[in-house]
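[job 0417] fold request received: Hydroxymethylpyrimidine/phosphomethylpyrimidine kinase
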Amino acid sequence: MTAPPRVLTVAGSDSGGGAGIQADLKTMLALGTHGMSVLTAVTAQNSRGVQGAWELPVEAVRAQYRSVVDDIGVQAVKTGMLASAELVETVAELLAGTDAPVVVDPVGVSKHGDSLLASSALDSVRTKLLPVATVATPNLDEVAQLTGVRVTSEGELRRAAAAVLEYGPQWALIKGGHLAGDAVDLLTDGSEEHWLRAPRHDNRHTHGTGCTLASAVACGLAKGQSVPEAVTAAKEYVTGAIAAGFALGGGIGPVDHGWALTPGTPGTPAA
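[job 0417] inference complete; emitting structure tokens
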């Protein structure tokens, strides 16, 4: 048997299973790739929020990364919660020495508004991590956190993308999901533009959306797709996952990572 494309996530754990490493690995399985993980932090987290977070030592992160990459190899890497400046810089150094496309989800806060990145790490994200990214996937809060640009309308997405691209990623995917109306994202490398639009689903259970989208992009890149192809496919996948999101616990439930594998699920592609 030939091994499927190999995708590595470097991110934190979500004990509730909706975001983080857990969402990444579910996405990778659903999209036909082999998911591997480098754990950067452990969170005590559920549908109501993050009750605690503990980052792993740099040596543990580096050892996990080298263990996977040096033996198994990777065809794409996705980063998520990196917590501290020291971890950001360590991961950026590892990525710079790896010959594979990199999707950077510059996680700053959780769905519930809990901080997942030390303020002292922001400059390291700007100057160390974004320059090694093939695609950076910030939401509007993360754009504001990193660049100071605040977006209140679809027409301002170009300005946000330009500000992110100044830090060096090859492509910026600015997620406009926090705006009113359709869910509109802008993918650009500074010269060509791709506008991705999907209807907004009336479903509050959207925990893990950002992790899922970035992981889906990494899966497409691992399969050899171009950045626009990978992002377009990822947008379709996450839109279906949001439509099928379900209640869990007493707060915000997760998107359904296995939506396309379940017959009759809303948004399931026709056979």
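[job 0417] notes: The chain has one domain: 6-261. Residues 227-243 form the longest helix (17 residues).
[job 0417] exit 0
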